[in-house]
Backbone:
């Protein structure tokens, strides 16, 4: 089990070795078998340690996160950006307005990766299976990204277009325009 000191040392070493920013995996991923997208992976203590080091070193910290509890922890820890922002818990996908308002109020940038999610949902429907059997709300979460983004826009959150390219063979590197068009 990692400690805050382990996190600090690892990030400090990576920054010394030339990293320009920090990214943490705060929940499991839909394309990563053996992980749980609905569960927060890192404690608030570890996230605070990571954020503290990044900000002390003058770099931003981003996080991959689908789990609502993970999103809450990331807001509390003070991260700069969250990718996916899936709003998934043990009962499945459910957008939570109060969490989105906290994201806005804290100035957290969100990158919902809508187009990649919609492409993956279509692929899963065609295949009739998911890459990660532990992803209890895969279709709802992927399709919910568009709903989330509409709420983010309505609330005035800072939205960064991101394609999640390279995450799977179905998410090529040339889809950023499609991502931006999905926001309209």
Residues:
């Amino acid at each position: 089990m990692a400690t805050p000191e382990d996190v600090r040392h690892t990030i400090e070493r990576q920054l010394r070795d030339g990293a320009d920013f920090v990214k943490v995996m705060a929940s499991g991923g839909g394309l990563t078998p053996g992980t749980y997208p609905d569960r927060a992976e890192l404690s608030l203590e570890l996230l605070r340690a990571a954020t503290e080091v990044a900000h002390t070193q003058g770099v931003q910290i981003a996080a991959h996160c689908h789990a609502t509890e993970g999103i809450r922890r990331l807001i509390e820890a003070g991260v700069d950006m969250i990718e996916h922002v899936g709003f998934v818990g043990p009962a499945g996908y459910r957008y939570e307005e109060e969490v989105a308002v906290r994201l806005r109020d804290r100035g957290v940038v969100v990158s919902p990766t809508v187009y990649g999610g919609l492409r993956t949902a279509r692929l899963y429907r065609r295949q009739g299976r998911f890459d990660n059997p532990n992803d209890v709300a895969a279709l709802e979460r992927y399709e919910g990204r568009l709903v989330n983004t509409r709420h983010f826009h309505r609330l005035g959150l800072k939205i960064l277009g991101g394609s999640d390219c390279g995450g799977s063979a179905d998410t090529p590197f040339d889809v950023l325009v499609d991502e931006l068009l999905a926001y309209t």
